[in-house]
Design goal:
Layout (H helix, E strand, L loop, with lengths): L2 H25 L5 H12 L3 H33 L4 H53 L6 H15 L4 H12 L10 H4 L7 H7 L2 H9 L6 H9 L20 H16 L10 H10 L7 H8 L3 H10 L9
The structure holds fe (ii) ion.
Length: 321
């Protein structure tokens, strides 16, 4: 269920709840005494929608909901107690209670949301700082990781991945090569081709990254993507030779996004490929390296959307190189 549908369902639920409470309250007479007791208990249920709206939508939602509740309640007070000013004053006190029940939690929930957002931003900035530090070690100012995160996000959207999982997949994409911190400089920065033993050393970065990332509580799922980011659908990848759906979906999405970015980016030994050339290459590896469902989903994304991301996160020349 996406965020928009979730909000719509909550609004419908609130409207139904207010309607049911009002109906029961209006339909229960204030006399005889026995019914009056039920009437008063039902009246207390009006506190529920303002508190629920505060929790779901914050202060603004609480104000709107409490306004609707107040309108219905004032009408009831006028209908049930015509000319009885003492009872109407009593009802007015109840009305003030609804506003307190809506406004205070509404303000508190808004405050809590903004604190959580600040915390999420701080986590994000810390991770970006770590990724920049790794890039600097490789003497690179490339924004490869950020572009790949964005491309992966587009695939995740189209596959209906929920927001929480999408965020974790994004962290996995961002941190995929964090394990390179364990690769010695003479291998990581070697200008020429690597020997086979050097490749063996380089291939350890998936597991090294997994060991680093899994220790961080909110990155547990991201760690699985880091571990599996060099696997291939037919089992020819590393480090575990996982196959098909044994590879986490996040990693299967990342693999396509990663290769697309590698092919369309400038490299010292070749010019960047066009969208058409890169997607033809990806299509040729669908079913062997890549999950065909993910490839088809990726190919359905408008090229302009991908190009806009590439423009937003451009590679720059490193002045210190
Ligand atoms: Fe890697």
């Amino acid at each position: 269920m996406n965020k928009k549908n979730g909000s719509r369902n909550k609004i419908i639920l609130l409207a139904c709840l207010i309607g049911i409470i009002a109906l029961l309250h209006y339909a229960t007479p204030t006399e005889p005494h026995y019914y009056h007791k039920i009437h008063i208990v039902l009246r207390k249920l009006y506190f529920l929608p303002p508190v629920m709206a505060a929790a779901w939508f914050g202060l603004r939602g609480a104000i709107l909901t409490t306004s609707a509740v107040s309108l219905l309640f004032i009408m009831h007070a006028l209908l049930d107690w015509p000319g009885n000013y003492m009872e109407q004053a009593n009802q007015l006190g109840e009305l003030a209670g609804f506003w307190v029940a809506g406004l205070i939690p509404g303000w508190l929930f808004d405050r809590q949301r903004s604190i959580l957002q600040e915390l999420a931003n701080a986590n994000e900035e810390t991770l970006l700082g770590l990724v920049s530090a790794l890039d600097l070690r490789e003497h690179s100012t490339r924004l490869h990781s950020q572009r790949v995160r964005e491309y992966t996000g587009l695939i995740a959207d189209r596959l209906g991945v929920d927001e929480k999982a999408k965020r974790e997949i994004g962290f996995g994409a961002l941190l995929h090569d964090v394990g390179k911190i364990a690769v010695p400089d003479q291998i990581l920065l070697k200008p020429g081709k690597l020997t086979e033993p050097e490749w063996d050393e380089m291939r350890k970065h998936s597991e090294a990254g997994y060991r680093i990332v899994k220790k961080i509580g909110f990155l547990k799922d991201a760690a699985e993507i880091v571990y599996a980011h060099h696997e291939q659908l037919d089992g020819s990848g590393y480090p575990r030779g996982l196959r098909g759906e044994g590879i986490p979906l996040g990693a299967r999405m990342f693999m396509v996004a990663d290769v697309y970015d590698a092919l369309t980016s400038e490299r010292p030994y070749r010019s960047p490929m066009s969208y058409e050339e890169a997607t033809a290459e990806i299509k040729s590896l669908s079913g062997s390296h890549f999950d065909p469902v993910v490839v088809d989903t990726f190919l359905a994304i408008a090229p302009e959307q991908l190009q806009e991301i590439a423009r937003r996160y451009p590679d720059q020349d490193n002045p210190n190189r």
